[in-house]
Amino acid sequence: MKNLGTFQIYQPSEVSESLKKIGAVFYQNEHEEDWYSLQNLTGIFVAVDDTGRVCSVAGDITALSPAGLTVIQLEDGDTTPEIGDYWDGTVFGQVPLTQADYTNAIQAMLDDAAKVRLYDSAATMSTYVSSTNEQWAAEAAAMVAWRDAVWLYAYAQLDLVQSGQRTQPTVDELLAELPTPTWPA
């Protein structure tokens, strides 16, 4: 894999009249290499934006419009990434999961469990903890206990990942590890 650089639009000092007539756009990387000097390269070319997200993949370098993008030339044996994949500067992979991805999945799991018990959300279910209806109060107490155990576990795992003591799990892996509820009879 070879990083060809990040290309920006520029105006060369000399432009032929024929290129001026057609409105040719010129690109140059940070090493002052002109985009058109690379047109004879072969292989698979990947354009990534400044966040590392793959924007374009082409078997023909001339198919790319690289303004503001970094262009990577893949070598034989390199895996071709998909549009939307992530490039960390050395390898391509899936877009890294964020804390929000885990938070949203955990909250959806809690809310789904409440809905199965005919409440509209975990938050609503939890408000019944002081209900005069014994069944509702017991279900709410079970939800609160489960919710607390879930979030305590999730934040403990986050600490382990951030400190390098654990590799980052997928969302599904983390959900499978979470405590399960104990509902009243």
Overall description:
- With 185 residues, the protein is of the alpha+beta class.
- It folds into two domains: 2-93, no CATH class; 99-177, no CATH class.
- It contains five helices and eight strands.
- The protein has helices at 17-22, 99-116, 122-126, 134-162, 171-177, and strands at 2-6, 8-10, 26-28, 45-48, 54-58, 70-73, 86-87, 92-93.
- α2 runs antiparallel to α4 (134-162).
- The termini are far apart.
- The mean pLDDT is 93.
Largest sheet: 4 strands, antiparallel
- What is the N-to-C order of secondary-structure elements (H for helix, E for strand)? EEHEEEEEEHHHH
Helix content: 25-40%
Low-pLDDT ranges? none
Shape: elongated
The portion of residues forming beta strands comes to 15-25%
Give the count of structural domains.
2
Evaluate the radius of gyration. Answer: 27 Å
Distance between the termini: 60 Å
Structural class: alpha+beta
**How is the largest sheet built, in terms of strand order?**
1-6-4-5
Overall mean pLDDT: 93
Number of strands: 8
Helix count? Answer: 5
Concise account of the structure shown:
The chain is 35% helix and 15% strand.
Main attributes of the structure:
4-stranded antiparallel β-sheet, alpha+beta, 15% strand, 185 residues, two-stranded antiparallel sheet, elongated
Structural topology:
Layout: E1 2-6, E2 8-10, H1 17-22, E3 26-28, E4 45-48, E5 54-58, E6 70-73, E7 86-87, E8 92-93, H2 99-116, H3 122-126, H4 134-162, H5 171-177
Antiparallel strand pairs: 1-6, 2-3, 4-5, 4-6, 7-8
Helix pairs in contact: 2-4
